[in-house]
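In this section we walk through a basic example: taking a raw amino acid sequence and producing a predicted 3D structure, encoded as discrete structure tokens. The instruction is simple. Fold the sequence below.
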Amino acid sequence: MTEAAAHITEKRITVGEGPAGREIAILHRAAQKKTGLAFVWLGGYRSDMSGTKAVELDALAGELGIAAIRFDYSGHGISGGAFRDGTISRWLEEALAVLDDIKPKRVILVGSSMGGWIALRLAQELKRRKKAPRIDGILLIAPAPDFTAELIEPNLTDEERRSLAERGYFEEPSEYSPEPNIYTRDLIEDGRSNRVLTGIIETGCPVTILQGMKDCDVPYQHALKLVEFLPADDVVLTLVRDGDHRLSRPQDIEKLRTAASALIVHD
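The resulting token sequence is shown next.
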């Protein structure tokens, strides 16, 4: 075990009760400095906490001496639960449960793709609580808030609509996996009740967005639209002219590291 890995603890928590209960896997890097600050990684649809960006963020936390929290949503990675049961509400519940378990005092939320949507909803939910970690900043990478309503529903084919109505889901080929992407009726219907692009989003903290202009999954215009809903926050949007959806090239990772470091507040 390397010295860096020695500070990481794997644990599992149960979220939900009865048939809705599922085991969520967490990797928690302990802080080496008494700042109370933790990076919180929120992954994308069908991604897991062992992906390049998640690992690089954790490594950065180790270099800076702060904590890092990674976890797999249910149906993802090494967590329990069925992927087809997944909804934004369900994955948001798991993110809240992870923070309740680890109890960081301050957090920087880092959300990739769908994780950007979860990050914004998480910020909304934490603001409603009397006791919650302070959000020092939010970093969104190719964010996909409201992607079910904004990017999927308007583009459904007649065949996909029939599949949703008759089977409760439809499939489409994935560029990143031999297995197709599956979108369920429950995911789409639940997505409508979790929409954030409906009015002013007040996170109460600086927001940084990294977005590739050659992103075929989430068009960069979607990031521009998101900025319009964040008029109360200090927002920095970086458009990467030749960047794709993953933004995992060495030069992209360097941008991630720089952006995450810049959000650290030194009290």
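Looking at the output, two observations stand out. The helical segments are 52-64, 88-102, 114-127, 147-152, 158-167, 185-193, 220-228, 250-262. Residues 22 and 243 are 36 Å apart (CA to CA). In the next section we compare this with other chains.
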